[in-house]
């Protein structure tokens, strides 16, 4: 496997977040708890390793001990041209539920359509496609 993979550390909400992203991207989720891995550095039912597979893939975990959780400043996850316009529009709308639209998905002066949203988990997404 090659390419960039996103791995997110959540403050005890990894299972909820992975389920949300599964529904957003129509993917499949696999989750393993701290208990499954024999880990004692966090709650047994916390997610030690989760995988979203599908058109958008990512990994997630719950923080252990005093690890910091995900915080996005000065960065975004770019899904530019990764699917057709209809699919990207659907993903934008789904990510917006409970989140904050930074810039609505709309036609831009340079001829593409794009927009930005921070989802309910604080992840900033840049979504766009060529018209």
From TrEMBL:
Report the residue ranges that make up the Glyoxalase/fosfomycin resistance/dioxygenase domain in this protein: 12-125
| Alphabetical list of InterPro entries matching this protein | Glyas_Bleomycin-R_OHBP_Dase (IPR029068), Glyas_Fos-R_dOase_dom (IPR004360), PhnB-like (IPR028973)
Q: Which Pfam families does the record cross-reference, listed alphabetically? A: Glyoxalase (PF00903)
Span of the signal peptide: none
What's the superkingdom here?
Bacteria
Stated name of the protein? PhnB protein
Native organism: Labedella gwakjiensis
